[in-house]
Amino acid sequence: MTSETDSTPLRTGGGDLELRTSDFEYDLPSRLIAQRPPLRRDDSRLLVLDRQTGTLKDRRFPDFLEYPAAGDVLVLNDTRVFPARLLGRKPTGAAAEVLLLNPLDGDSTGRKWEALVRPGGKLKPGRMVVVSDDFQVRIEDSTPDGGRVVHLEGEGDPYHLIETHGHVPLPPYVDRPADRKDRERYQTVYADAIGSVAAPTAGLHFTTDLLRAAAEKSLHIARVTLHVGPGTFRSVGVEDPREHVLHSERWEMTPETAQLLNEARVSGGRIWAVGTTSARVLETTVRADRGFAPGSGWTGLYILPPHEFRGVDGLVTNFHLPRSSLMMLVSAFASTEFVLRAYRYAVREEYRFYSYGDAMLIL
């Protein structure tokens, strides 16, 4: 039996607990924000947080495989980042930018998209952005949250036009233009389903050799899909985080993945989420009996402390922006106090932060 979810925002945690967004703040020197990936994907550090003992341990990322046991499941988000950033000019010659988000439901041509535009005040419905001689973007309508509905105009397949003329949408804290290497490195080695404007960054550390070693250790590899939107970079802008609304993102869990997870649950295997995006799919699909239901749809699941995780036993994740919903999710998994202690330790030990940075493993 499959399920379909709508885009209604969901929120778990909070309750009567006194939560403040400022509780998820920490100081980070700008020099620790990774501007480029390491030479090798798995040549990164791994800070291991043990929730039972409250201890921290410095490891290297390939050491991760020492922790799962045979029969456990690694859950990967197989979304693929597409070159969603279109740079062009208005007919006046002024610079303009369109960030494609989602193709509109019901449009089989692939030409109508929800998008963000810059400069927003100038690109009203009816305006045009010229990306190249054979590729233009027409602004058709505005959306309630300040975005736009755009129409891609040009000869040939619109996805080919995007692939040819688009740029990798690097996060705003990467202070350089995207280059050719980013097309490969801002992408997991198992990326498949096109649809993200940001990478599921915990997965960037995995190599094909590391995944092969996981299989040789009798770990099961399961794939889910969650297409990451630009909201992943946004800080929570209100002091009560329960007032924040998380933007919904498309997800899918196949019957095969649900069956694998359910079989692991029955046999006593643990489920390891690779990244907060995988964790959100697992928590969206898990049932009260800790089994999983396949399906697809949109999830706005927003996880705050305290939250009872029923679908995740261990979590691999990168270091996240202060005051972000991702940091709140990690804090719900490991406790805010423990996570902040780990972040302070990581700053002191000069770990590399954010998308191209180092990783944490929470046991």
Question: What would your notes on this structure say?
Answer:
By secondary structure, the chain is α/β, with parallel strands linked by helices. It folds into two domains: 3-81 and 183-362, QueA-like; 86-165, Thrombin, subunit H, CATH 2.40.10.240. It has seven helices and 19 strands. The chain has helices spanning 158-165, 182-185, 208-216, 255-267, 276-285, 325-334, 336-348; strands at 3-5, 9-12, 45-50, 55-60, 73-77, 79-81, 85-89, 95-103, 112-118, 128-132, 135-142, 148-153, 193-196, 220-226, 249-253, 271-274, 295-303, 314-318, 359-362. Strands 1, 2, 3, 4, 5, 14, 15, 16, 17, 18 and 19 form an eleven-stranded mixed sheet that branches. The protein has a six-stranded antiparallel sheet with strand order 7-8-9-12-11-10, with helices on one face. β3 and β4 (55-60) form a beta hairpin. α6 (325-334) crosses α7 (336-348). The protein is globular, with a radius of gyration of 21 Å. It starts with a strand and ends with a strand. The mean pLDDT is 94.
